[in-house]
Amino acid sequence: MRLLIVESPSKAKTIEKYLGKDFRVVASVGHIRDLPKSNKAAIDVPGGFIPHYEVVKGKERVISEIKSLSKKADEVLLATDPDREGEAIAWHVEQAVGLKSPKRIVFYEITKEAVEEALEHPREIDTNLREAQEARRVLDRLVGYDLSGLIWKKVRYGLSAGRVQSPALRIVMEREREIRAFLPVTFWTITANLEDKSKNNLVFVCSQEPNKKEDVENIINSAKVSPWQVTDIKETKVARAPRAPFITSTLQQTASSRLGMAPSRSMYFAQRLYEAGHITYMRTDSTNLGGAARKEIEEVVKKKYGANYFESHVFAKKSKNAQEAHEAIRPTHMNVETAGATDGEKKLYQLIWQRTISSQMKPAEVMRTKVVANTEVKPLGLESGGLTSGEMPDFWLNGSRIIFDGWLKADPRSASEDIILPKILTGDPLKLLNISSEEKLTEPPARYSEAGLIKELEKRGIGRPSTYASIIKTLDDRGYVEKRAKALFPTDTGEVVSSFLEEHFPTYISDSFTAEMEDELDDIANGTRTYKKTLADFYTPFSKEVKERDKVAKITNLGKAPADLKCPVCGANMIIKLGKSGKFLSCEKYPECQGARTMEGKELEGPKDTGEICPKCGKGNLVTREGKFGMFTACSRFPKCKFVKKDEEQEKANSTGVKCPVCKTGFLSERRGRFGIFYSCSNYPDCKYAINAKPTGETCKLCGSLMMEGTKTIPERCSDKKCPNHNPHKINQT
What we know:
alpha+beta
């Protein structure tokens, strides 16, 4: 028997279909060892940055099973993902299980051909790749613990900082400051509705945007007194080249902008597609396509669209460290247009298929047309100092039409909304139907979207393909940014943390330093730099600076409040402070005076002692305080003790009457959280069962889980997302 070890059970299931009875395929179910939570126990810095790993809780059974199977196996093969993290997982399996001379195989797509090819070329575990991943893990831990600990002391308990997370937050914050500093300027756009000789209504826009009202009036008055005509027509034939196949960053960006998928979500779906054998490995920065893939694409293009649509293209590498052995993200079988088990997977697969096929097609040919119109008498009635000249400015009408669709045939959503213009000639008369102006303000630069931030991180060399999604997710999870209509807004907490780091650790969160560190990690992977030297060169000066900043005074206020907002208790001046829910105004005499207001000026009631002892810790008193979602009673020792007293009346009012299926003693109650209303067990935190919609009281006939309310078209659905009845409308679809 030959034992083959992968990380994912679904990956194991797919590979098992390709191998004979001589193979047994098992999964480690991700990492089986990790650094302990305590930083002191995690890394031996004086000893040479030696990490001390512990078996991940619950993985003892996995290790025991692999150990038992390995003793019966004639050969053990490690087939974890083909990147640094995969190499590290393979090494951890070898170390934890005690394997003797296991072989390492890699493949970039889970197909029968790729797996069989990999089995023909086994190798040893790559120490350089493994050490590069270990260096990243240790660096992130050291930076995170040291900076977070300092921020706890100087800003507020519970905050965090990270080696790559903090530069990303700084970028978001820099854009926010640009927006705040922006001074809008008033300008006017002027639009003329003109009719051609064929009675077509054409909308022309003035080529100049005056910033004075009198200039606008001059143009409008002059437009009404003289006949109009077409003064010029400019046509330009433009070739729109196809785009490169997806790499990790461009897939995340396009999925975000086109499908509205968060980067973490798109990577989750991509992982599922990869493990099911539908696409190649989804963590790559290479736009390369293999010879076999090109041949398949050529066959598909010629058969589906015609031979005149095919044209081979080779795209430049996006990254200087992109490896030619890697391929871009592409379907494993080009003739399969639809794949995936869920809606999200199917949409992402279609996006990947379209981009891959279109990358090997001819450029689209577009004819861009600009029609220029003006009055027959150009001078304005009055001299206009605000315009570039005293003459009537031209009015423009832009349009385009696709002459040959080329690669847009396979990727139609990449085509712009083309304005098809009627047949019109220079000198043709035009009749003015209406002319109007609209006052506008210049706008500041736009806030980053998730896709925009990934593009910016990639441009600045911050992070790598495998880290983009986790960077953004971390900023969101920490409450440093919040997403509103796709735009990322820094929160009050995010602003304070970023400002603190920018003031005290500008070097370590700069673009250049972070990008250089990524390059050094790449050098470890390439074998041109050592693990110990890289960490020592970084950590020696870094730890010294952290210790020096320990003398910095604690941030107790963020500036003075507006003079008209006085303390509601004693009438003294107020200062801005940072609380768990963001900024608020506090009396400058605190703690002698507990007066507080919101940033808008509304009075905040301070904690009121109930006189009861906390039943959980027995040390603190229960106090009533105002939170984000109203008044509540909790232990005064929070956050050390997180006991929250239940409001029996409110609990009764919120209860659905549906018994919790997990603990069997609690009832599901309506609660409001960060992402809106959800329903959880009344025995929380002892029982953490929760669903995101109101339970109906019925149970699923397929899996036995609770049924919950759905939508207008799907009134009821299973609460278990893995159950087919979660999407009952699809069960009967073929």
